[in-house]
Amino acid sequence: MGQEITDFDKSMMQRCFKLAENGAGHVAPNPMVGCVITHDDKIIGEGFHRAYGKPHAEVNAIHSVKKIDLLKKATLYVNLEPCAHHGKTPPCSDLIAAHQIPRVVISNVDPYAKVAGKGIEKLEAAGTEVIHGVEKAQGWFLNRRFFTYHTKKRPWIILKWAESADGFLDIYRDNADDLRPTWLTNQMAKHLVHRWRAEEQSILVGQNTALLDNPKLNTREWYGANPLRILIDPELKVPSGYHILDKNQKTLVFNWVKAEQNSTIEYIKIGQESSIIHAVIEELYNRSVQSVIVEGGAYVLQNFIDANMWDEVRRFIGEIHLKDGIKAPEFKEIPASKTPMGNSILYKYFREAIV
């Protein structure tokens, strides 16, 4: 660990976290990383990883320093261990060593097999003092998708739904009804949901939700890339004219009938004896998808809950009483947070305690 961690070290790591968050929705499957460089307890450079395939945070921070000679007396703060391998960019640990930066402070060791301590080893071999573990719980939470993907070999799974004050997702409807769900929240919540879509790599619904709501599952209410759409439709009941099959964005359809590629729509056939949930999660892992929002419906959500296949729940509870209809999932966990949002409240839950 090296010398004692100071309050200044902690404050600079907080700055790294803030910088790193600017990469949300743009860097996956890479982690979000921010970097700050100081000299005599003053910031002389900073940067963050802006987009996948672009220069890493450490490179941007070093290039932002106007007086390069100060690097030999500086401290570099970064929330994730500098890489030690040639990927889409050269190793950051080599660049740090080349500039002879004498002290590096890190929040988290990188679990990715090609790094996993090798960056620290390179720096220490070059004579750099390396301190790691600074604010590591917060660092883990920031990159929880990345860490879950590399340690649990699956994406971070978010379950999301809105329910009425009396515990219903919707009134009873059929295909003859208007293809719109009962609105239980408000425009502010809708914008937030579209922001979430831009921040996560994929979004999933079952056939009933696709048939009854005809959702687009895009980011039209927020700036950002559309997520990969996932439809669970075992018997291929969703007609081709529905939004989820409109070919406007990449879509995977898990089914029992066929395996086929049709423009941006890919049909993935699985055996009827297989668990669809586990087949979906395994396929997403194989495609380097690190996060998925499960939006419904009730049957799909309950199956994820019953299988204990979730990491985070985002649950809106509105003021409206429906009195009857489709029951919300059975879910008895204690919320980690509660946020009022107009005519509804957003509750967030985490399967494992977040420090």
From TrEMBL:
Against SUPFAM superfamilies, the record matches this protein to: Cytidine deaminase-like, Dihydrofolate reductase-like
Q: In which pathway does this enzyme or protein participate?
A: Cofactor biosynthesis; riboflavin biosynthesis; 5-amino-6-(D-ribitylamino)uracil from GTP: step 2/4; Cofactor biosynthesis; riboflavin biosynthesis; 5-amino-6-(D-ribitylamino)uracil from GTP: step 3/4
Gene Ontology molecular function terms on file = 5-amino-6-(5-phosphoribosylamino)uracil reductase activity; diaminohydroxyphosphoribosylaminopyrimidine deaminase activity; zinc ion binding
- Which cofactors, if any, are listed as required? Zn(2+)
| Active-site residues (renumbered) | E58
Q: Which residues bind NADP(+)?
A: A162, T209, D213
Tell me which residues bind Zn(2+). H56, C83, C92
Q: Could you say which EC number(s) this protein's record lists? A: 3.5.4.26, 1.1.1.193
**Which family would the database say this protein is a member of?**
In the C-terminal section; belongs to the HTP reductase family. In the N-terminal section; belongs to the cytidine and deoxycytidylate deaminase family.
Q: Which gene encodes it?
A: ribD
Q: Which domain of life is it from?
A: Bacteria
Query: InterPro entries annotated for this entry?
Result: APOBEC/CMP_deaminase_Zn-bd, CMP_dCMP_dom, Cytidine_deaminase-like, DHFR-like_dom_sf, Eubact_RibD, RibDG_C, Riboflavin_Biosynth_HTPR
Per the annotation, how and in what number is the cofactor bound? Binds 1 zinc ion.
Q: Which reaction does it catalyse?
A: 5-amino-6-(5-phospho-D-ribitylamino)uracil + NADP(+) = 5-amino-6-(5-phospho-D-ribosylamino)uracil + NADPH + H(+); 2,5-diamino-6-hydroxy-4-(5-phosphoribosylamino)-pyrimidine + H2O + H(+) = 5-amino-6-(5-phospho-D-ribosylamino)uracil + NH4(+)
Name of the molecule in the record = Riboflavin biosynthesis protein RibD
Which intervals of the chain form a coiled coil?
none
Please list the residue ranges annotated as the CMP/dCMP-type deaminase domain: 7-131
